[in-house]
Each structure stands twice: as C-alpha cells, then as structure tokens.
Amino acid sequence: MKNEIYIGDNLKVMNNPKFQKYNDKIKMIYIDPPYNTKSKKCYQDKSTSLEWKDFIEKRLEISKKFLRQDGVIFISIDDNEYANLRIICDKVFGIDNFVGTFITKQAQRSNAKHINIVHEYILCFAKNKKKLPKFVINRMEIKEEKKMINKLNLEVKKVIKNEGLEIANKKIKGIIKDYCDNYNINWLKNYSNVDENGKIYFSVDLSTPGKPRSVDIPEIGLKLKPLKTRGWSSDNRFITLYNENRLCFKDGRPYAKHYLEESEDNVPSILNFFSRQGTNDLKKLGLTNLFDTPKPVEMLKFLIRIGTKKDDIVLDFFAGSGTLAEAVYEVNKEDKRNIKYVLIQLDEEVNKKSEVYKACQKFGILPRVDAILKFRIETYLKKHKKEIDFEIHNLN
C-alpha cells in the first residue's frame, strides 16, 4: 500500500466506507488532539469541557475498531483535560487495557501564577493489553544511558590501548562496579567481559531445560559432554553463534556474547522530549513558523519503535503539520523498516492573526492546516531526494 492522507472531518472520514479497509489493520494510533486550553493558536482550540468530551469520545470510539488486537493508541494531552481523557479512555478501551502514562518535559514558562508547568502527558491504552507486546527499547536510544555507555566504552578502550586486552578483562569488573555505584544501577554488573574487538559483553548460558545430550559439530570443532540435568542449545544455534563470532568459552563451557550496545530495557515513564524540539524540526526543513505546536519528530520515532514492528501501519487522525509522517520516514531509513502511515486532517483555516498565517503567505501555500501538512511532507521528501509516495483523498 501507499501512504495515505485523508482530508476532511476525522469523524466523517473514519465513518466513510472507503476508510473501512483499515478495520483491524492499524498497529498504532498516535493523536495530538486539541487540548481545549482556550489559548490562541493557529487552529481552533476552544470549547466547553462537555463539548470537548463528546468530541473526543466519539472519535476514540470509532478509532478503536481500526486497531489490531495487539494494537496500541498514544494520546498527547496536558493537565487541562487529562482527567477527562483518562475517564473517556477507560470507558472506550476498558480500564484493564490501560498501559500507562508517559510524562514529557516542556519549555520553562515565566508567566505561571502558581506552578510553573513544565510537563505534558502521553496517555497509552491497548486494544487488548494481554496481546500487546512489551515496550522495550535499546539503551542506546535513551540519551542518559547512551552517554554513560559511550563513556564506559572509551574508558575500557583506553585500558586496552595502554595495557592490553588481558589486563582490560581483569580490570573490567572493577570498572563496572564503579559505574554501578556512581549511576545507582544493577543491570550493568553482568557485562564483565571484553572481546578482541574491544566490545563489552556478558556471557549468556547456552544450556536449556530438557533432556541432557552431547554435542558434536565437526565443522566448528565443538564437542560437549552431556550436562547432568539440562540440555544444550541446538546445533544450529551453536553454528550461528560461531559464524557471527559470538561464541565464547569459560572453563571449557560455551557461552553466547551479548553486547552492551545491544542491551534493552523497559521504556521509562519520563521522556526527555521538549516541545521546542518540534519547532526546531520545522526550522531544519526551512519551514520556520509554519505551525505553532508541532510535536518533536524524535518523540514520535520513540513511540513508533516501541509500538510497532517492521511492516505495520500507523494512524494519526489529528495529523496537524505531519510530524508522524516525518517520523515514519526516519524510522524506516534508520531501522530498515517499511512502516506505512495514514493521516487524517481537517481542511481548517489558519488564524489570520497568527504567525503561521504569515508563514503560509511567505511559502505561497493556502492558509489551511491540510495545506501545511502536505507542504511539510513534500518539503521533507524533496530535501531527502525521495519521490512523492502518498495519495491524497478529499472526503469533505
């Protein structure tokens, strides 16, 4: 399938027969709906709380049917309507399908009356929590842990350069202990080995539950006697590990190398993605002031990575400036995936008193949010020398 953009009221679009092909097909939904803050933005963000609740509930109710059984929805929101949104989601998706709430950091404000609010939320619900895979992320994707791992790698490589690999393997446990103490962590303590390439790893046991058996694999020169109460991994796994240079030995017993840079963790609830990063994303495309509340591309990439697999479909029915589309392109490029996006955006006119309206005039596009969406995606593709790969459907 091609990426698709639907122009029109999202409730009408999701009710349209042409959109029903996505029933039970969407792996992940992300939306950044109006927060009902009553503040001045380039789009409509003012209604009574009762109107807002009715508006959101109707759209969440119909969107649910498009999610796969292992699907997930992420919803950005702030304090203004968080409590109401949680109650609505409990009703629509079921309390048992509540996954959790992420907290994202926002820019410091100087006009707070009582509390300087520097956070927003991403509410997360599953279609069926029992079928939702765990949210795990490579530690190198977490800014603080990447910094720590890179520092550790440099320290160990310095020891190897000055004193040799053998000494590095003797000192690594002490170095790791210091890092565990300094950073108040325990997960790192198992990474107590360094290979000939200077990569830190821990040794994974290759015994398995089952009947004891001997191993004899002439092509890799491996012979193992049966264990007393457990079996060995399959011959194919031993061969694969050997060919990938991931087979190591301790006291004559084989182990698999698990490298530090491959380590994963359950995702944290507090995310270091700031609202100004979304503004900077537009600046990088040369589109300064084209939208006043874009979400950060990196935040959407994070959600895509934890919420999807290789060839899934993602949906955003409050598409705004199209951050989700850019995030999909980035993840596909970096992770060699083939995620497809489906976007829905109302052909809403931009506030004539906003900076966004002036930017639309500057770029020669219609002062409408759907025009901004299309222009941003086209600009991204042009910058990266890619062909237009989306279809537009006007369902007004």
Would you kindly provide a written description of the structure presented here, covering whatever features stand out?
With 396 residues, this protein is an alpha/beta fold. It has two domains: 261 residues, Vaccinia Virus protein VP39 (Rossmann fold, 3-Layer(aba) Sandwich), CATH 3.40.50; 125 residues, no CATH class. 35% of the residues lie in helices and 23% in strands. Strands 16-4-5-3-2-17-18-1-19 form a nine-stranded mixed sheet, sandwiched between helices. The protein has a four-stranded antiparallel sheet with strand order 7-8-14-13. It has a two-stranded antiparallel ribbon with strand order 6-15. Strand 17, helix 9 and strand 18 form a beta-alpha-beta unit. Helix 2 packs parallel to helix 3 and helix 4 runs antiparallel to helix 5. The protein starts with a strand and ends with a strand. The mean pLDDT is 93.
Second-tier CATH architecture of the largest domain: 3-Layer(aba) Sandwich
Radius of gyration: 25 Å
Oligomer: single chain
Query: For the terminal residues, how far apart are their CA atoms?
Result: 23 Å
Number of strands: 19
In which range does the helix fraction lie?
25-40%
Which runs of at least 5 residues are low in confidence (pLDDT < 50)? none
